[in-house]
Specification:
Length: 71
């Protein structure tokens, strides 16, 4: 999602754990596929139009969330 906040162009990106199939009830995710968090983040960021700020909202586990924040 991209939007404007005043004159700033802002992208909001949501990211969840690649282990979703292991942490949810069997069958809930169906045929969905989950790629590695960092690879997904880089793919999405590369596809964004030019922005001034990226807000990354993650739910990947504390260690992965911290690693992604450092990137």
């Amino acid at each position: 999602l991209t939007s404007r906040a005043g004159t700033a162009r802002v992208a909001i990106v949501g990211l969840t754990t690649s282990a979703m199939k292991e942490v949810t009830l069997k069958g809930v995710t169906g045929d969905l596929e989950f790629e590695a968090e960092e690879a997904a983040m880089h793919r999405v960021l590369a596809a964004l139009p030019p922005v001034d700020l990226v807000v990354l909202v993650t739910h990947c586990g504390l260690g992965a969330d911290r690693r992604l924040a450092m990137r």
